[in-house]
TrEMBL record:
Its cofactor is [4Fe-4S] cluster; cob(II)alamin. Binds 2 [4Fe-4S] clusters per monomer. Catalyzes the conversion of epoxyqueuosine (oQ) to queuosine (Q), which is a hypermodified base found in the wobble positions of tRNA(Asp), tRNA(Asn), tRNA(His) and tRNA(Tyr). [4Fe-4S] cluster 1 binds at C201, C204, C207, C261. Gene3D superfamilies: 3.30.70.20. TRNA binds at K236. This is Epoxyqueuosine reductase. The gene is queG. PROSITE patterns: 4FE4S_FER_1, 4FE4S_FER_2.
């Protein structure tokens, strides 16, 4: 943390400072800010059970830091409160997202990733917010996080009153749905705590029903090993064959549970240019993206969250989607063009896709 603050300005009580922080945050483009304490005992118990169940798959980093993830003051000594912020990212109307997903020739990229890397956008804004606070009260202890450290961002946002964690394990806001990013500022400021919002999922189970791979095994319980977002982004190895057909044309992430959530009728389109589609990723075809060389992939994903996937996993995902596409000579020809790829990972998934396109013995 930075040097500790020497207190707020005379006459600027903690509740007044909290109001100022929220106003400054909204001026920086955040749709809402809230403040939470650091007590996450319930979330910690759920995390430990999830890890014990092995549902984190190969995401070893989820267990690497022990309880620092669920105890902010252990990660950053001196932390008293957490400022949690959300920023809308939905770049187009939901009908357009559904149309893209329904077209088997189109490459579906989760809408959070079709624009600029959100980590950079939110981190820069949160840093500016922290500097604005410091300019008002003097130096204080803080650290900015955007999905970049062992931080339980959804439980913290829930405690800060930004929404409730739904049955699909995403945060839902009653006036904005769930199409938003989260970021945090850990602080040593004694700020007043916001009140959480009650869970309003009720009897709805639409997200459980729609999940293509049944990764939401029970309300509020997600087995990441079956989740398409995990399989196409986090997972570095071979995608289990029994799950490949359910992936459809999803090549990077999955938005199905958000698309069916009734609360997303309140979702608002983003006003951020950075979250608009780049490189035509909202309309690109599987064939077009499969033709990208590694150099092209690196060039066209510069500044994108997709780049960390790497070219081999990019081709892996596209090969699975082409295997799920309607039989066509164009798809078969494209797959054959990568049959001699040096990566065993690519080779395996291309061969599987060709068997799907041309039949056994191909």
């Amino acid at each position: 943390m930075h040097p500790r603050h020497e207190g707020v300005q005379p006459g600027d009580a903690p509740d007044r400072l909290a109001e100022r922080i929220k106003t400054w945050g909204e001026a920086l483009g955040f749709q809402q800010l809230g403040i939470a304490d650091t007590r996450l005992e319930r979330a910690e118990a759920r995390l430990l059970q999830w890890l014990d169940d092995g549902w984190h798959g190969s995401m070893d980093y989820m267990a690497r830091h022990g309880t620092k993830r669920s105890r902010p003051e252990a990660l950053i000594p001196g932390t008293l409160t957490v400022i949690s912020a959300r920023m809308d990212y939905l770049p187009e109307h939901l009908a357009e997202v559904r149309d893209a997903l329904a077209d088997p020739a189109q490459a579906f990229v989760s809408r959070y990733a079709i624009g600029r890397d959100y980590h950079k956008v939110l981190r820069r804004r949160l840093q500016r917010l922290a500097e604005r606070i410091a300019s008002h009260i003097g130096p204080f202890g803080y650290r900015v996080f955007v999905d970049s450290a062992p931080v339980m961002e959804k439980p913290l946002a829930e405690k800060a009153g930004l929404g409730w964690i739904g049955k699909h394990t995403n945060l839902i806001n009653p006036r904005a749905g769930s199409w938003f990013f989260l970021g945090e500022i850990y602080t040593d400021l004694p700020l007043p705590i916001d009140r959480p919002i009650a869970d309003h999922c009720g009897r709805c189970h639409a997200c459980l029903d729609v999940c293509p791979t049944q990764a939401i095994v029970a309300p509020y319980r997600l087995d990441a090993r079956r989740c398409i977002s995990y399989l196409t982004i986090e997972h570095k190895g071979s995608i289990p064959e029994e799950l490949r057909t359910q992936i459809g044309n999803r090549i990077y992430g999955c938005d199905d549970c958000q698309l069916v959530c009734p609360w997303n009728r309140f979702a608002r389109l983003t006003g951020e240019d950075d979250f608009q589609a780049r490189q035509g990723l909202d309309t690109a075809t599987l064939i077009d993206l499969f033709s990208w060389s590694e150099a092209t992939f690196l060039q066209r994903t510069e500044g994108s969250a997709i780049r960390r996937l790497g070219h081999a996993r990019w081709l892996r995902n596209l090969a699975v989607a082409l295997g799920n596409a309607p039989d066509s000579e164009t798809a078969s020809t494209a797959l054959r063009s990568q049959r001699a790829h040096p990566s065993p990972l690519v080779h395996e998934h291309v061969d599987w896709a060709l068997r799907r396109q041309l039949g056994p013995g191909t």
